[in-house]
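tokens incoming
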């Protein structure tokens, strides 16, 4: 997984770029919006081994898990010249074989025991992290020492992972409309000398030019104990942990050779510049403006961080208010304070709304920057920005891996892990004058770089993209040791697994208010954070004929104005509390979700209740939201994966109330009127059709008191509640290719109707889909990514519903490989039905489910989702405590029978979106009934999926 600090900024409108104070009942007073709450510090210990390895530990006895992370001081900026992408390529290589571990063993020892692993490459560092049950701690320490000291770097693994990285490049940069802009052009245009200008993922030409000697030399140079930090957070015995660290890491040798360090300095800008960029499948023009900034350790960093929040954190931010809400010239506005180890960038940007130009966006962005240079922000703006930042840090630290990440990031960027705690005080100390000062210091008009991004069709005639320089043939000469997997009899055995720790499961309590509102409360943490989730049992099935997206728009409009609060007041009042408030809808349910610190819960819940009970559905606000939704669909129509997601409902559920895109279509959204939304709200948004879940740092008595205070006056209508329809798809399976010329990848999908949430085989279905495609080690990913390097990831899942859910297996691949990937998906579906899974495989995939469920329970938001879903489908709440037992009861013969019943490829539909000229012939050989529909002619409300000949979007 590639991460860089310049990766896309903060989205504020559409998300086009496809995220210990107890509250006593007697003290349910309104919180002061200007007051900021404190985030408990991360308590940790640190030491340094004689070989230079830094060790950080933080104990948490409340969890049955532990995270083990190793952070290396090597990132994309350290890639050799002509070999960009090496640090990221090595992130992939580190999951392969060592002298004592066959390839993929790390997944066996993490994912297959109920944990997970991942890694990320940044400009300045690379980190590797796992979360596992605490009794596996010793094994994971051994594993991390093993891959640091004896990684096997062989030709076959190198070539395979290089192919996977190329698919990752195609998926994240070439098939995303704005991937080129933010991933390639912004850094390229903003730096002239510093290696931050190169994309961390590299490029296909330089990856292809790499040799095995290049790769081995890179590992020998950077992967050493004195360039690493071990971070362990969770439940452990401190003395035993230290002994294991000394045992496994203490014996590693510090090399005598010094590490090369980047010495390049980016020269100061002396004048403004402009970069013109183009890309295929760019539905809306965009603009980004960058200035040189400082580094993460600089005293100005906190003020720049606060400035960033004032500009674009939330709907009350300056850029959203000006460009998106008031002027309505942008579909999305963003800013980003990118402050890495060396001086970085400050960026503002916008994706323009339909009919608006880059020039308008550029002028509006610069006007907002000028406002901050000319006058300091108000006291209210400053307090709101700080509240949002502090609350955001709190949410990041809700998990053990989040806390470890905070320590590692602080260490790598500033040289001091304790900065994870001191940063909060530094943010609190920022004044309005500081914000104005750094705006003047860094964001001068004559030192900006403007990056303009348009569709390829707008490129001036005769102008071509400059050719890339061919990469050098040889960069490194390696003459060190070459390791290989030892014969099995000679391998060191992994340590034994310790005694498991039993998790402490939440104990939900519930009460029904006199008006019929069901209230569920579960204390899940002492961290000062509460999630409130109000779920209404209605979704896209309630859309009137021809008005797809009506229920989704109804839910989305809840936060856009009530009878007593404007949309801007809702945003500013919520964000002043450091809270987040969102609303939305799916096929069967709509929700309003609040995240807030306990001392501010009464005030925030009052706003939440107001938006749920009293939405205004003003015509002016509807027009704003409609245009944003239409712009969002323009972008989705240019992304293969998103396009398939939109087409899946009509293909799977055609002829039923689910048989249209739940978020609407370009044809249906213009038909929505305020009275349409009011009618849906009046019929379904009522307390006897809703469930309120409160989780986090809250007791049942506190939760019930808050619910009564906020929702007790919600009147139950006298009219009976309309019945929810049964969904019974009967459509014949289809094969559809959606042609999206010029896109970098194809999204290959096999879809079909599946089971209900209350199906007796629900748990069997969850296990079966996890065996097939639930995780890195599942069958689809093994065949498509690991063995063949055809995709960055392949997966399968079941989405259950009240009467009929759906199944989807998918992978993205280069366009010409789409037929092969389809064959592999179908073959694995058939294989699961033909023969039972082995006992070891079944045990591993069950552990994936159980471990994931446990981690979800550990966060207030995850627990709220679980309890809310149980309530929506009338499943008893004690299912939380029965989940593990029911998963473990599933047998191999059950999985095989379920696969025969539900995963039959012959009864499935196929949807492929991509550049059809590269794969349509191969698909037609396999699917004679293939329908090829150009994306520009797509109509997701038509049974044919195609617009009438005279129609145009």
């Amino acid at each position: 997984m590639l991460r860089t600090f310049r990766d896309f900024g903060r989205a504020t409108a559409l998300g086009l770029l496809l995220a210990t104070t107890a509250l006593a009942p007697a003290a349910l007073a309104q919180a002061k919006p200007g007051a900021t709450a404190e985030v408990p510090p991360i308590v940790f210990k640190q030491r340094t081994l004689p070989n230079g390895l830094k060790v950080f530990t933080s104990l948490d006895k409340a969890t049955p898990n532990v995270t083990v992370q190793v952070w290396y001081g090597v990132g994309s900026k350290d890639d050799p010249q002509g070999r960009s992408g090496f640090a990221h390529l090595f992130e992939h290589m580190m999951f392969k074989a060592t002298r004592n571990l066959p390839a993929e063993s790390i997944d066996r020892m993490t994912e297959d025991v109920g944990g997970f692993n991942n890694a990320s490459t940044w400009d300045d560092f690379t980190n590797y992290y796992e979360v596992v049950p605490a009794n596996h701690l010793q094994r994971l320490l051994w594993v991390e020492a093993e891959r640091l000291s004896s990684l096997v770097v062989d030709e076959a693994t190198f070539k395979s992972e290089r192919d996977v990285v190329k698919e990752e490049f195609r998926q994240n940069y070439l098939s995303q409309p704005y991937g080129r802009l933010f991933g390639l052009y912004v850094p390229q245009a903003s730096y002239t000398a510093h290696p931050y200008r190169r994309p961390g993922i590299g490029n296909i030409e330089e990856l292809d030019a790499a040799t095995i000697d290049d790769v081995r030399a890179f590992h020998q140079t950077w992967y050493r104990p004195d360039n690493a930090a071990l971070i362990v957070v969770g439940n452990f015995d401190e003395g035993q942990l230290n002994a294991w660290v000394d045992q496994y890491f203490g014996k590693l040798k510090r090399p005598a050779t010094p590490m090369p360090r980047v010495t390049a300095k980016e020269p100061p800008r002396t004048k403004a510049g402009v970069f013109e960029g183009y890309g295929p499948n760019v539905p809306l023009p965009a603009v980004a403006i960058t200035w040189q900034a400082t580094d993460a350790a600089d005293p100005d960093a906190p003020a720049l961080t606060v400035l960033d929040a004032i500009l674009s954190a939330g709907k009350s931010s300056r850029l959203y208010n000006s460009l998106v809400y008031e002027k309505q010239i942008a579909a999305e506005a963003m800013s980003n304070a990118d402050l890495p180890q060396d001086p970085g960038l400050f960026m503002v940007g916008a994706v323009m709304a339909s009919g608006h130009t880059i020039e308008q966006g550029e002028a509006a962005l610069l006007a907002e920057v000028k406002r901050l240079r000319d006058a300091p922000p108000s006291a209210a703006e400053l307090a709101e920005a700080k509240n949002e930042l502090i609350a955001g840090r709190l949410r990041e630290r809700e998990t053990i891996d989040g806390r470890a990440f905070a320590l590692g990031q602080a260490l790598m960027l500033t040289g001091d892990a304790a900065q994870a705690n001191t940063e909060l005080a530094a943010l609190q100390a920022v004044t309005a004058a500081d914000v104005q000062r750094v705006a003047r210091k860094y964001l001068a008009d004559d030192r900006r770089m403007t990056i303009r991004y348009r569709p390829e069709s707008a490129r001036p005639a005769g102008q071509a993209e400059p050719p890339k320089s061919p990469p050098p043939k040889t960069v490194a000469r390696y003459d060190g040791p070459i390791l290989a997997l030892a014969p099995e009899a000679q391998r060191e055995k992994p340590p034994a697994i310790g005694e498991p720790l039993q998790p402490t499961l939440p104990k939900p309590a519930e009460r029904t208010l006199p008006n019929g509102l069901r209230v569920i409360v579960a204390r899940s943490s002492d961290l000062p954070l509460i999630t409130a989730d109000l779920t209404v049992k209605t979704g896209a099935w309630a859309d009137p004929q021809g008005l797809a997206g009506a229920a989704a728009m109804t839910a989305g409009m809840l936060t856009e104005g009530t009878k007593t609060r404007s949309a801007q007041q809702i945003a500013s009042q919520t964000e002043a509390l450091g809270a987040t408030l969102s609303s939305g809808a799916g096929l069967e349910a709509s929700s309003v979700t609040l995240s807030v610190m306990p001392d501010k819960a009464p005030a925030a819940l009052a706003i939440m209740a107001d938006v749920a009970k009293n939405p205004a559905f003003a015509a002016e606000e509807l027009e704003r939201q409609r245009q944003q939704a239409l712009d969002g669909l323009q972008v989705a129509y240019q992304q293969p994966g998103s396009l398939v997601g939109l087409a899946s409902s009509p293909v799977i559920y055609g002829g039923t109330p689910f048989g249209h895109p739940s978020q609407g279509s370009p044809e249906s959204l213009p038909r929505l009127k305020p009275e349409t939304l009011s009618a849906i709200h009046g019929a379904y948004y009522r307390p006897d059709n809703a469930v309120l879940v409160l989780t986090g740092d809250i007791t049942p008595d506190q939760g019930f008191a808050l619910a009564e205070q906020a929702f007790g006056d919600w009147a139950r209508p006298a009219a009976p509640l309309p019945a929810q329809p049964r969904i019974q798809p009967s459509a014949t399976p289809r094969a559809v290719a959606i042609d999206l010329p010029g896109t970098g990848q194809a999204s290959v999908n096999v879809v079909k109707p599946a089971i209900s949430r209350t199906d007796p085989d629900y748990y069997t279905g969850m296990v079966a889909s996890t065996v097939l495609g639930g995780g890195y080690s599942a069958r689809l990913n093994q065949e498509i990514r690991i063995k063949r390097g055809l995709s960055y990831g392949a997966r399968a899942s079941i989405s259950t519903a009240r009467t009929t859910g759906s199944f989807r297996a998918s992978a993205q691949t280069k366009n010409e490989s789409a037929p092969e990937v389809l064959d592999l998906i179908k073959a694995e579906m058939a294989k699961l039905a033909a023969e039972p899974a082995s006992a070891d495989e079944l045990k591993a995939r069950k552990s994936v489910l159980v471990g994931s469920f446990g981690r979800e329970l550990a966060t207030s938001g995850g627990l709220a989702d679980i309890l809310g879903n149980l309530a929506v489908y009338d499943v008893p709440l004690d299912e939380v405590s029965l989940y593990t037992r029911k998963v473990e009861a599933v047998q191999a013969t059950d999985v095989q029978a379920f696969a025969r019943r539900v995963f039959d490829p012959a009864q499935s539909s196929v949807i492929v979106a991509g550049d059809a000229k590269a794969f349509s012939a191969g698909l037609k050989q396999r699917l004679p009934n293939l329908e090829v529909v150009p994306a520009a002619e797509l109509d997701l409300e038509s049974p044919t999926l195609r617009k009438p000949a005279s129609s145009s979007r």
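note: The two ends are 36 Å apart (CA to CA).
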